[in-house]
Amino acid sequence: MEEGKLRELKQFIETCKSNPSLLHNPSLSFFKAYLLSLGARIPPQPKTEPGVFDDKKPDPSLPAEDDIIESDIELDNAYVVEPDNDPPQKMGDPSVEVTEEQRDAAQLAKSKAVDAMSQGEFDEALDQLTEAILLNPHSAILYATRASVLMKLKKPNAAIRDADTALKINPDSAKGYKIRGMSRAMLGLWEEAASDLHVASRLDYDEEIDMALKKVEPNAHKIEEHRRKYERLRKQKEHKKAAIKTEAPIKKEQETEAQVQEALSALKDGQVIGIHSTGELEKKLSAASKTSRLAILYFTATWCGPCRFISPIYTSLAEKYPKVVFLKVDIDEARDVAAGWNISSVPTFFFVKNGKEVDNVVGADKSTLERKIAQHSGPL
Fold first, then answer.
1. Bridge partner list, 353
2. In the beta sheet, which residues pair with residue 330?
3. Over the stretch 342-354, which tens digit does the pLDDT of each residue have?
4. What confidence tens digit (pLDDT) does each residue in 191-208 have?
5. pLDDT in tens, 58-98
6. Which residues contact 237 (CB under 8 A, 6 or more apart)?
7. What predicted TM-score, i.e. pTM, was given to this entire model?
């Protein structure tokens, strides 16, 4: 890791040590979940007086100029338990091939576990389910069932590990989402819990999921509203800072607008502009570029029969496409321009956008000429 990032990480950890309540900040929920998954103990969230927040009015209790310090959220943590830090349960080897006999033996162990659960003997149920998982590690329902036993034993981290494994095997395991959601609620991970329980409800609704959601959703909604509140306040602060720095951009915008108007005055909407020198051509192409217009450079000659045919058509196209810049060069009169564009035959048409050639037409092909004008002048 880069030295600068290490310094920032150390500073962040020192800040958390001096003020552990920061770990209850909703924006750090991912970090809190990671610490809990490692078995860390998070100090309880200090209670604050609940207040009424009007989403349409600025919060006078927060400083306008200084950094915004988020207040705590009043949550119902009655069902939150201390995170478990036991060694992980034995997991089966997903790479092994399971025989029919092993499946039958696993099913028998599961039946014994269900009987033990019905009698409240959860430790016995846990042992039987572990044996079943080792026999058949490909069964999502076995992991989800063991997760439910671990949850009843108030071991939410262990339950989440088994639920995760069940969902890896079967992403549509309603029981996997249900147990993981209820276990996350036991750790105070309200938004993650609500998300899991909603998925479980869509897959296979039952009353237990509905009861869990009634406990989880109020806290999840408070966290969401809290986040939206401070996102809005940060945007207000950013807009305020941006307003202070608008003078330079406005001046630049005015200068750009003046340049565009000057460029437009050099162009003639609906008319063909004669070019007599390289300098004159550069000015017209520059003006076309500043106004984001397509420029067409038509090379012709008085002695050219096809040119005499296409010239009036070129003039009529200029009237039809007034926002396109139509330029015309007589190669005998402006030899420097013709040489710069390596003209070997006439009529030749070059299509120029933002100072770069994007297409060309050689010859008096009326239909191709108009088609390409329509093609390249479209997104102006």
1. 356
2. 300
3. 999 999 999 999 8
4. 999 999 999 999 999 999
5. 444 444 445 667 667 788 888 899 999 888 899 989 899 99
6. 64, 68
7. 0.48
Amino acid at 265: S
Among residues 126, 275, 281, 307, the one annotated as catalytic is 307
Active site residue 16: no
Provide the token pair at 44. Answer: 């309880």
pLDDT at 51: 41
Q: Which strands, in side-by-side order, build the sheet including 348-353?
A: 272-275, 325-330, 295-300, 348-353, 356-362
Q: Are strands 348-353 and 356-362 parallel, antiparallel or unpaired?
A: antiparallel
Residue 297 bridge partners (DSSP): 327, 350
Q: Tell me the pairing of strands 348-353 and 272-275.
A: unpaired
Annotated active-site residue 304? The verdict is yes
In terms of phi and psi (left: phi > 0; alpha: psi -120 to 50; beta: otherwise), the region of 295 is beta
Banded model confidence at residue 249, pLDDT cuts 50, 70, 90: low
Q: Is the model's pLDDT at 47 over the cut of 60?
A: no
- Is the pLDDT assigned to residue 4 strictly greater than 70? no
| DSSP H stretches of helix in 136-172 | 140-152, 156-169
- The DSSP symbol for 28 reads G
Exactly one of 267, 304, 317, 337 is catalytic; which is it? Answer: 304
DSSP 93-143: -TTSPPPHHHHHHHHHHHHHHHHHHHTT-HHHHHHHHHHHHHH-TT-HHHH
